[in-house]
Amino acid sequence: MASFYNQVPSVSSVFFLYTSFSAITMLLRTILNEVVPKGIREYITVKLVDYFSSYFQSDFTFVIEQHWGEYVENQTFLAAQVYLPTRLAGLTTGKLLVGSNNLKNPTAQPKLGIPVDTKIMDEFEGIHLEWNLHNVKSKGRRDKQYFHLTCKKEFREKILADYFAYVTESAEKVMRHRENLQIFTYNKEDSDWESTLAIEPDLKTTLMNDLDAFSKGKDFFKSVGRAWKRVYLLYGPPGTGKSSMVAAIANQMKYNIYDLQIQSVKEDGELREILTSTTNRSILLIEEIDCGSDILLSGLLNFVDGLWSSCGEEKIIIFTTNHKEMLDPALLRPGRIDVHILMVYCTPLVFNKLVSLYPKIDGHILCDAIEKLFLEVSITPAEITQQLMASKDADIALKGVIEYLETKKIKRKKIQNWRLMEISKMLGSKKQKHNWLSSAFSYL
Ligand SMILES: Nc1ncnc2c1ncn2[C@@H]1O[C@H](COP(=O)(O)OP(=O)(O)OP(=O)(O)O)[C@@H](O)[C@H]1O
User: Fold this and answer.
1) Ramachandran angles phi, psi of 66, nearest 5°
2) How many whole angstroms separate alpha carbon 26 and alpha carbon 33?
3) I need a labelling partner for 234 at 20 to 30 A (CA). Which of 36, 273, 320, 322 fits?
4) Ligand 1 centre and the CA of 40: distance in Å?
5) What is the DSSP pairing of strand 144-152 with strand 119-124?
6) Is the per-residue pLDDT at 188 higher than 70?
7) With contact defined as beta carbons under 8 Å apart, do 343 and 242 qualify?
8) CATH 3.40.50.300, the chain: domain bounds
9) Residue 377: strand, helix, or coil
């Protein structure tokens, strides 16, 4: 018993030990502060804190701030903003931001956004993930936002390597979809195409009858076992009114227009996805069809021929081109396009209609002179419209048209002369010309 008490240190020796330890610690801290630079000290501290906290924690959190550095937008943040509203099933708070900045088309699908402090659960290859959007108030400046993405620590590498790329790709897909397919709603106020479009009366009657028969043709299409669709090709030089014609058809039929930018569609699967999202009683407009890639064209044609019939009714497709001669023959194959419409340069009848639309007059003394000039110079309705809209005064506007046509005539004459000179230069001297002509004839 006595030996046990002998082994227990006395209070004074414990106190001595404590004060010595404290003194050594303080000495070491002072030496450390004096000898080791501040930057290195902070680095060591952060590493130690990181090490111990990660040792005890099982979760890992990625912080995705709105900006990368001071001003550069963080693309990962933007991708998450677009991607997360597509994960509606993972929304835990039952709230979503909805909005639109599309003044031209108020009935278009609104864009979706994630409200602040909303938790969204996601899953990637069996890994559970949790997203959270946070907001930091900033005095005098716009608030800063950042996402927290949390996963189990052991999946950190996998998320870094694959998940972020997946989020970015998914967001790009959504964005491409938004940009490739613009939707225009028909204008209820302006449903009369008389007030906007000038075309030859015969063409107008034929087209109106065709559209009328189509809209009443549900039973007919069913009885012959064909999809209730009509395909038009509008072709002709730029400015002859192809787009204006599409708008007029949409107004007449009360259909929405899906304007597909086929040049920016990257692959067949994406094209199908876009095409199947169009609604009934709509026009699918594909402008400059000669500029799309062959692969997409064949995807489009397959869709028009087959899938179209199983995904909706009463649809019109309109292709436009300035160069019909450059179209893929597959598109022109019989049975693919129902109606081919050539949009031509201004004719006297179209001109009279334009005059009644813009200066809003019924005939004018200058009209005869203008119509005669049409025999010598080709001019598009777009060019005429531009001149007519230059003044509200009919005299001034029509004189402007004459001047424009005269200038065009002179330019055309100059070009013709220049071409003739080039040809005669090519033919060379009289003797050479003789040789050239005789060899050409002997070849024939
Ligand atoms: N037939 C027309 N009737 C009334 N306005 C027309 C007509 N054709 C052209 N215009 C006027 O010219 C403008 C341009 O015409 P539009 O875009 O319809 O021609 P386009 O043939 O589609 O040209 P592009 O091939 O360059 O797309 C129209 O906004 C309209 O103001």
Assistant:
1) -65, -35
2) 10
3) 273
4) 70
5) unpaired
6) no
7) yes
8) 193-341
9) coil
Mean pLDDT of 122-138: 90
User: 442 pLDDT exceeds 50?
Assistant: no
Ligand 1 centroid to residue 31 C-alpha, Å? 83
CATH superfamily of 193-341: P-loop containing nucleotide triphosphate hydrolases (3.40.50.300)
* Beta pairing partners, 231: 317
Could you tell me whether strands 315-321 and 229-235 are parallel, antiparallel, or unpaired per DSSP bridges? parallel
Mean pLDDT of 275-286: 81
Tokens 């002072």 identify what position? 30
The structure's pTM equals 0.60
- Tell me the C-alpha distance between 440 and 421, whole Å: 20
Give the whole-angstrom CA distance, residue 184 versus residue 279: 12
Name the residue type at position 235: Y
For 305, which DSSP code? I
| Chain centroid to CA 116 | 28
H helices of 36-155, where?
Answer: 38-56, 75-83
As a whole number of angstroms, the distance between CA 378 and CA 376 comes to: 7
Query: Are the C-beta atoms of residues 403 and 377 closer than 8 Å to each other?
Result: no
Contact 125, 162 (CB under 8 A): yes
CA of 242 to the centre of ligand 1 (A): 6
Residue in the structure block whose two tokens are 């991708």:
79
Please name the residue whose Cα sits nearest to atom 16 of ligand 1.
Answer: 241
* Residue length of the chain: 444
